[in-house]
Specification:
This protein has 2 helices and 5 strands. It is an alpha+beta fold. The strands form 2 sheets. Strands 1-2-3 form a 3-stranded antiparallel sheet. It has a two-stranded antiparallel sheet with strand order 4-5. The longest helix has 23 residues. The N terminus and C terminus are likely disordered.
């Protein structure tokens, strides 16, 4: 019987309560939740800054501006997915949730 499970869909796993031990399984790779969340937040900050900079130019490049806006939308969707699946608690306060609903602020 063929395996119909989508191997590219992200799956969350949590074997311990320690934030540093939480991981996401993406395909066959395990990635640290804290690292992924920080990278996504850094990308969002960078893209927002670039969008503002481009919009304030005398002659904004609409192709680059639209590309950055799409990239920002994508990163925000990833962050929303992490929040929705309780991998993190809040977009505004990078926080992780463990199975017992306790939270630990990422620092």
């Amino acid at each position: 019987m063929a395996n119909t499970e989508d191997q590219t869909a992200p799956h969350t796993t949590s074997h311990t309560k320690a934030e540093g031990d939480r991981s996401l399984t993406i395909g066959s790779e395990h990635v640290n939740v804290h690292t992924v969340t920080n990278k996504v937040l850094e990308d969002i900050d960078f893209l927002r800054d670039r969008i503002i900079m481009i919009e304030n130019q005398k002659v904004p490049n609409s192709l680059i501006l639209n590309t950055y806006k799409k990239m920002l939308e994508s990163r925000e969707a990833v962050l929303g997915w992490l929040e929705e699946h309780e991998v993190i608690c809040s977009v505004n306060s990078v926080t992780t949730t463990t199975k017992d609903d306790s939270t630990k602020r990422a620092g």
